[in-house]
Design brief:
Elements: H1 5-22, H2 24-28, H3 34-44, E1 50-52, E2 55-58, H4 63-77, H5 87-97, H6 110-129, H7 159-167, H8 177-186, H9 190-194, E3 201-202, E4 207-210, E5 221-224, H10 227-238, H11 254-264, H12 279-290, H13 295-302, H14 307-313, H15 318-335
Antiparallel strand pairs: 1-2, 3-4, 4-5
Helix pairs in contact: 3-4, 8-10, 8-12, 12-13, 13-14
């Protein structure tokens, strides 16, 4: 309520500016708190993925992760008015989250924080689209999402370590041996192999088909089975219920079993300097390049759309470094 005529003119001018800049929604945004925005986002965007002809037309495949992010956003920003959430508030949120351990009881890293902030940025972008905000507060200062600061996963598995690891896959860990071999000999993502069915295996032509709906890029690709992958898959089929729609790797304790096997094999696990299941994909990429397969073809096998992504997967272990030194020395000997 305006106190006098002069004040009324100011209020009217502000209302007209808001109408001009953001429509009627901009006025309503004065009352919106973050929980209102989160409710809208969950209702209209945070839904299970829906596919038509192998293409995602709405929803999210990583819905569980996004729901987890939204829970944290609500706890921190929940009752704040969205118009009052500043760059400084988001910076404080990021710094706070970096002090909180992950559910694996490990320090939260920059890559994890980048994923959270990317989700938060999209939530605010939706508010802009609806006319509730004029600018995204995340973009109103120094970049908070810094991909270059993410620590690269440089660790790969040597052939000698691979032998020790496979030898340790006995007893209660016997079930993860074929999975490790498949990851090393196909360069697949662990998430892709979890959804692999026997119907995706062509034993006659020795082909593995990773279906489009199960891949990160939503593109189907095929990999030829190596002899040992073929043998492991044949054994799994013989011991299965013989249903083609059954999962090839139908177990859940992969991570614990893998880390237990690595411990027995005297192989350090975990980030930033140890081996993880994803390191097996990096190991496969490095071995293919070392075997002189063109990097473009390596990218096709890994399912990369951008060659730069493939470059990030290539790592140099001690064996590679010694090989490089041998090449340098041979050149020096030729000059002599």
């Amino acid at each position: 309520m305006a106190e006098n005529k002069s004040d009324a003119k100011k209020v009217l001018k502000q209302l007209l500016e808001k109408l001009e800049n953001g429509g009627r929604e901009a006025i309503d945004a004065e009352k919106l708190i973050f929980n209102d925005l989160a409710d809208y986002y969950e209702k209209h965007y945070a839904k299970p993925a829906k596919f038509v002809d192998d293409r995602k037309v709405e929803g999210m495949r990583d819905l569980g992760r996004v729901k987890g992010f939204l829970k944290q956003f609500r706890l921190y920003f929940g009752k704040m008015k969205i118009k009052r959430i500043s760059y400084e508030e988001i910076l404080a949120f990021r710094n706070f989250r970096l002090t909180i351990q992950t559910h694996y009881k490990k320090t939260r890293n920059i890559a994890t924080m980048n994923r959270e902030l990317s989700c938060l940025r999209r939530v605010f972008n939706i508010a802009i689209r609806q006319g509730w905000l004029l600018r995204n507060p995340i973009n109103m200062g120094e970049p908070l999402i810094d991909r270059s600061a993410e620590r690269r996963r440089d660790r790969i598995l040597t052939l000698e370590e691979e032998k020790r690891l496979l030898d340790a896959c006995t007893g209660r860990r016997r079930h993860i041996r074929p999975l490790i071999i498949c990851l090393l000999d196909s360069g697949a993502r662990c998430g892709e192999t979890k959804l692999l069915k026997f119907s995706d295996l062509d034993f006659e032509n020795r082909l593995i088909t990773y279906q489009a709906l199960n891949t990160k890029t939503l593109k189907k690709r095929q990999i030829v089975m190596t002899n040992r992958v073929y043998d492991e898959f044949q054994r799994l089929w013989e011991n299965s219920d013989k249903e083609e729609n059954s999962l090839v790797f139908n177990f859940k304790d992969v991570r614990n079993s893998f880390e237990s096997a690595c411990k027995d094999a005297n192989i350090e696990t975990g980030r930033p300097f140890g081996i993880t299941l994803h390191s097996l994909r990096h190991s496969a990429a490095t071995r293919l390049v070392k075997g002189q397969l063109p990097i473009q073809m390596v990218g096709r096998i890994l399912g990369h759309q951008n060659p730069q992504t493939t470059y990030r997967y290539l790592s140099a272990n001690d064996e590679t470094l010694r090989q490089a030194a041998t090449i340098f020395e041979s050149l020096q000997n030729v000059e002599k």
